[in-house]
Amino acid sequence: MAKATREAYGEELAKLVRENPKIVVLDADLAGSTNAAVAGKAAPERFFDMGIAEANMVGVSAGLAASGYIPFASSFAMFCTGRVWEQIRNSVAYPHLNVKIVGSHSGITVGEDGVTHQAIEDISIMRAITGFAVFVPCDQHETKAVIDYVAEYDGPCYVRLGRSKVEDVFDENYKFDITKINVLKKGEKTAIFCCGLMVQSTLEAAAKLKEDGYDVTVVDVCAIKPCDEEGIAQILAEHENIFTVEEHSIVGGMGSMICEVAAEKCPRIIHRIGMYGFGESANWKDMLREYKLDGQGVYEQIKDYLDSTK
Amino acid sequence: MDVEALRKHAKNIRINVIKQVSGAQSGHPGGSLGAADILTVLYFEVMDITPENAGTQNRDRFVLSKGHCSPLLYAVLAEKGILPEEELKTFRKLHSRLQGHPDMNEIDGVDMSTGSLGQGLSAAVGMALANKLDKNDHRIYALVGDGEAEEGQIWEAAMAAAHYNCDNLCAVIDENGLQIDGRTADVIGPAPFEPKFEAFGWHVISVDGHDYKALKDAFDEAKTVKGKPTCIVAKTIKGKGVSFMENEASWHGKAPNAELTAVALKDLEGL
């Protein structure tokens, strides 16, 4: 049953806001889109729309957290990370305040709105901040598990969500350990680390690669920071060809994080797949196809590398 | 109100501002001296804050949005007995709790980490909202610089505070007319503040920032205002109390050398 990760966010936060009187919900005029409004309806006295003023939203969240509350502050990923990076860094991260930043409509699949709204650097800039935890869930179930986890996590967190409806990777019975990677498919020689919507794309790609005789391992990396160093290192050790796939720039995101772990623990040549520049306006499916981040595109990019090493 | 006692506190506070900045050979004396009277009234006549409740949320809170005036805040906390006066010697030195800009995790009595201008008022709004949710009658105060009010975020906070009826919030604009690159009027012209805050839906009071009675009356008036936050626009003299620093933009963030420190302390002892 396809559901957007932002939808799962609204549902789960609505549940939490009823259970925990310390949770407060903030948004910046996009509560209908981010689904913060769903949680807002569950506890209207603890919902604050801050209007199109994201910097103030971050500061207000800091003040609420300083007062013992647990603020979840959302907007489109572009605006609640990039625009207000310094506010997050100085007002939230430095004093280690318990603020949860939720960036919806991330990546290129925000679609028609185009480049100004397409956050492809948010993982990079948020993981750069000392003390900030960063999570990129791939489906509704992982999203709910992440939201539950960050609500309990003592410290600032960033959760990256998407606009479009995505297929389930997990089911409601899956026992998540949010701090660890999830090996979705065990193969040999080639391992592909993926996150967010690229998990679905990579699983599709893996099926096609199987037909070509490549039995690949697929690893869901939801916890970008702190990352599952042990788990990642083990996958690196067991495979020769390493790929990373993210709906994000190949500079500084999840792929770069894998490179950092590899450099320290288990050096490998790593092929980062993602965005190599800005996107453009398009329907999200056309976009993924154009930028080779749909199942077929990821398959082709990986197959090209693998074929060339034969 | 014991004006003599307030004058003594303010004098001691100013002396400690100069001692900290001089001792570190780093820091911001001008603005710290200029706002000393405002904070003296706030901490000794207005706010519910004591050494006993400083480590709790059960008191009034203060956000030094113009965080570079940290020597002033530390001197005030020392004068209140919340911080040991001895510790002021460590200002800005390695391993000190007295960081260059206030660190809320180091000291009880520092309610928000500030330093990057334009952000503290937003945090104060968040605290005001929290107090409303908690049905906590305590009040939130914030000190914002006039140069600092060039930051757009201050106006986002102003908009939000009015929209959310933060009548438990009182912001003071420390209007000394100066910033690093010169007079605010010449740099970018952020004033006048009174009509701007009124337009944003705040109750506004204009006072002489060195007049204890006027300040006390303004803070008392703020407590009676329902439904809107209050902005006290306090006209101050940057560097007040030290002859060669008064009204000089150059003493924003510069430490006096040994010779000038001696002159400064002499001026202040004479107060």
Summarize the structure.
The complex is a heterodimer of chains A (310) and B (271). With 310 residues, chain A is α/β, with parallel strands linked by helices. Chain A is 42% helix and 21% strand.
What would you say this structure looks like, in words?
The complex is a heterodimer of chains A (310) and B (271). Chain A has 310 residues and is α/β, with parallel strands linked by helices. Chain A is built from 13 helices and 14 strands. With 271 residues, chain B is α/β, with parallel strands linked by helices. Chain B has one domain (3-269): Rossmann fold (3-Layer(aba) Sandwich). Helices cover 41% and strands 12% of the residues of chain B. Chain B has a 5-stranded parallel sheet, sandwiched between helices. In chain B, strand 4 and strand 5 form a beta hairpin. The two termini of chain B are 19 Å apart. Classes of the chains: A alpha/beta (310), B alpha/beta (271). The A-B interface holds A 24, 45-46, 48, 50-51, 53, 55-56, 58-69, 71, 86-87, 90-91, 94-96 and B 57, 63, 103-105, 111-113, 115-116, 118-131, 133-134, 152-153, 156-157, 159-160, 163-164.
CATH architecture of chain B: 3-Layer(aba) Sandwich
- What characterizes the major β-sheet of chain B? 5 strands, parallel
User: Quick check: average pLDDT of chain A?
Assistant: 98
Say how many strands of chain B there are: 7
Tally of individual helices of chain B = 10
* Domains of chain B (count): 1
CATH fold-type name of chain B: Rossmann fold
Radius of gyration of chain A: 19 Å
Structural class assignment of chain A: alpha/beta
Topology as H/E string of chain B? Answer: HHHEHHEHEEEHHEHEH
Strand order of the largest sheet of chain A: 3-2-4-5-7-6-12
CATH superfamily of chain B: Thiamin diphosphate (ThDP)-binding fold, Pyr/PP domains
**Largest interface here, residues on each chain?**
A-B, 29 and 34 residues
Distance between the termini of chain A: 39 Å
Radius of gyration of chain B using CA atoms only: 17 Å
Q: Which CATH class of chain B?
A: Alpha Beta
Strand content of chain A: 15-25%
Distance between the termini of chain B: 19 Å
Helix content of chain B: 40-55%
